[in-house]
Inverse folding.
């Protein structure tokens, strides 16, 4: 498959007339051809209009047909083979093995949503029988979820496959029955085009309306702003910076018809080391934690950027082991010059904060855009007093906080902003103290995990990749896992609708064999 530098608007490849964008290899600075011809409001309008035209047909499709569509996209992405992996590697600097794993995750994610569609519970079909003899009488009430409308998807820089053009936002929106207009991330334009073309082909091969998928490309904020502001768009999926997510949320709220923005933004993912666990295996935890910190050059939204423990000899040993582990970690290439510059600025900024000391840094950079891992140390009192220490430094940097006792640790936890994850290392002797901490962590994070590391997000039914602000803009949802489909659905209640006009999912006799809640009882009757 050829990369041409075009946008994909419905069934067409369209050459924009606005700025030219170039893909860059962050490891070498080399410009990767071809040039990409960005568009603007005109192309956004065309893509969104087509999406609106496609919406009613697409949402009315039998779920099995949308499932087959998702599976065809998964097959197509796999069939791109080395072409996709090589290009993604060149554009992102991410290792080939990591990208191969990410491709598997992307395909599995699409297939998971195909299973979700076939299972049918996503529709939440619910029936309350009429009670004509009750006073007052109850009407016949039936409820199901329907698709929200066309969705704008902003691909993330740090997962060029699994969180990008055919990533979790797109997969869950398409599963819900929402056409997607994706904005290609400027950090992986060629990867975006390859994957976008697979989706475009799948639309044609499945005989779907062309507006089910489009992908626009553009330089600067204008195209993204125009996309979110377009009246056809009914929801937004975003992963990126806090500033970007908030800017797009403002655009969405200022529309004549405000719409939801599901933005996943920033998180420092605190790790709590409880005393017994620290005593028993502190040095092992230190080594494993540092491996998690530098994984993917720290460019994970779940990167462990904050570590808390109670002061004492076990913490001293942990600190020394962690500092030694960081000290031998090599600098590695970040995704883009911009992300690298932001990392350098963040680390330098930490260096200027009173009471925050750098205790280790990795092996110095030897090439462009390489980040050197960094470990800082402070006390709980100083951390609580200076809010700047809570800022996400996107990359392999973490802050170790010494707490006086478990009470101070819990007090600090209460001061934290919202997080994607909170991790606890605990042994049975710690459980009493953890029992007091857990309710605090539930309020702060979308996922609480024990005796592990936050990087590595399983794509499954029970996963929550979300959390209170600023981890996300809406803590009620997840952007990973089967439940992500709920972001792009809304319930409709049908009151006394004639049997002949009811949607199939709600008809008497349950012709689709769905799990349904009938008069409060769950069953398939
Ligand atoms: P970003 O700058 O927020 O950009 C993400 C996407 O949103 C891009 O397509 C960008 O397009 C668009 N965008 C950003 N601001 C916009 C605005 N005001 N109006 C319209 N569109 C806008 O994120 P990034 O490029 O991926 O990385 C930059 C920083 O984001 C990182 O250094 C890191 O701090 C953070 N980040 C966090 C996570 C996480 O999971 N927590 C993941 C990735 C990045 P344009 O660039 O064309 O404007």
């Amino acid at each position: 498959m050829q990369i041409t530098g075009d946008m994909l608007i419905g069934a067409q490849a369209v050459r924009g007339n606005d700025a030219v964008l170039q893909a860059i290899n962050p490891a070498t600075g080399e410009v990767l051809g071809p040039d990409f011809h960005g568009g603007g409001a005109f192309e956004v309008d065309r893509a969104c209009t087509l999406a609106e035209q496609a919406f009613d047909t697409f949402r009315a499709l039998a779920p099995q047909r949308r499932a087959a569509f998702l599976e065809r996209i998964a097959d197509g992405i796999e069939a791109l083979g080395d072409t996709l992996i090589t290009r993604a590697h060149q554009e992102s600097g991410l290792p080939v093995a990591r990208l191969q794993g990410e491709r598997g995750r992307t395909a599995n994610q699409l297939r998971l949503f195909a299973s979700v569609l076939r299972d049918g519970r996503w529709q939440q079909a619910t029936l309350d029988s009429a009670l004509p003899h009750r006073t007052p009488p109850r009407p016949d009430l039936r409820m199901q979820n329907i698709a929200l409308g066309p969705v704008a998807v902003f691909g993330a820089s740090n997962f060029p496959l699994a969180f990008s053009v055919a990533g979790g936002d797109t997969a869950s929106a398409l599963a819900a029955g929402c056409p997607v207009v994706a904005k290609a991330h400027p950090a992986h334009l060629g990867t975006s085009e390859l994957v976008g073309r697979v989706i475009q082909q799948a639309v044609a091969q499945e005989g779907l309306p062309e507006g089910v998928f489009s992908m626009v490309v553009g330089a600067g904020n204008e195209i993204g702003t125009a996309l979110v502001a377009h009246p056809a768009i009914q929801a937004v999926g975003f992963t990126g910076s806090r500033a970007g997510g908030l800017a797009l949320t403002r655009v969405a709220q200022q529309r004549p018809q405000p719409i939801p923005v599901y933005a996943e933004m920033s998180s420092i993912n605190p790790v709590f080391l409880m005393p017994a666990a620290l005593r028993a295996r502190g040095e092992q935890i230190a080594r494993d934690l540092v491996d998690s910190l530098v994984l993917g050059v720290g460019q994970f939204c779940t990167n462990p950027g904050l570590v808390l423990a109670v002061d004492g000899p076990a913490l001293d040993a942990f600190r020394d082991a962690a500092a030694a582990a960081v000290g031998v970690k090599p600098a590695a290439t970040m995704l883009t010059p911009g992300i690298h510059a932001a990392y350098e600025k963040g680390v330098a900024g930490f260096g200027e904060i009173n009471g925050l000391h750098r205790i280790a840094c990795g092996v110095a950079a030897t090439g462009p855009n390489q980040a050197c891992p960094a470990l800082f140390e402070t006390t709980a009192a100083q951390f609580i007093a200076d809010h700047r220490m809570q800022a996400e430094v996107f990359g392999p940097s973490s802050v170790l906080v010494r707490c006086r006792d478990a009470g101070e640790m819990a007090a600090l936890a209460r001061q934290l902003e919202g997080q994607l994850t909170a991790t606890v290392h605990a042994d049975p002797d710690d459980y009493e103290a953890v029992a007091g901490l857990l309710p605090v962590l539930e309020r702060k994070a979308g996922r609480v995990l024990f005796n592990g590391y936050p990087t590595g997000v399983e794509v499954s039914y029970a996963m929550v990749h979300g959390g209170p602000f600023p981890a996300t803009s809406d803590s009620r949802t997840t952007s990973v896992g089967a439940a992500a489909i709920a972001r792009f659905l809304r319930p409709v209640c049908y009151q006394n609708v004639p049997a002949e006009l009811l949607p199939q999912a709600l008809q008497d006799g349950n012709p689709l064999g769905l799990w349904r809640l009938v008069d409060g009882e769950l069953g398939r009757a």
Remarks:
- The domain at 270-450 is CATH 3.40.309.10 (Aldehyde Dehydrogenase; Chain A, domain 2).
- The pocket of NAP is lined by residues 154, 156-158, 183, 185-186, 220-221, 224-225, 239-241, 244, 247-248, 264-267, 301, 339, 342, 392, 394 (CB under 6 Å).
